[in-house]
Design a protein that fits this description.
Elements (H helix, E strand, L loop, with lengths): L1 H27 L5 H18 L13 H43 L9
Helix pairs in contact: 1-2, 1-3, 2-3
Length: 116
């Protein structure tokens, strides 16, 4: 289960890094990205916390083997889902920042220089 947790948190970290790259590009264009940055920071902190977790199960006899493994797996699945939800919120914040930047671009006229 540690491998599953590592693989999933690595995947989430890479996704957050890509979102950060998008936000950096938007910020260079003058868009307000504070909300998106906050969402990404929160998600990244939770992913890092999740990556540090270890899911161990105790086997006392063969009869409780299945229930012990299932309990640990269910906890892992629940934790990963909650972190995934934060990742989705961060992505939605980035999409909203893009929409806002696009709207600003539409309403901000391009200055034209008239030569005398």
């Amino acid at each position: 289960m540690s491998t599953v947790n590592k693989n999933q948190t690595d995947r989430m970290t890479k996704a957050l890094e890509r979102l950060t790259e998008h936000i950096d590009k938007l910020e260079e264009k003058g868009a307000d990205v504070a909300t998106a940055r906050t969402a990404i920071s929160i998600a990244l902190a939770n992913v890092e916390e999740q990556a540090g977790k270890d899911y161990v199960f105790t086997i006392t006899d063969e009869r409780n083997l299945g229930t012990s493994v299932k309990a640990s797996y269910d906890l892992l699945k629940q934790d990963l889902r909650s972190v995934q939800a934060l990742l989705v919120k961060a992505k939605e914040a980035v999409v909203e920042a893009y929409k806002t930047a696009k709207t600003l671009k539409k309403i901000t006229p391009t200055p034209t220089v008239v030569a005398p």
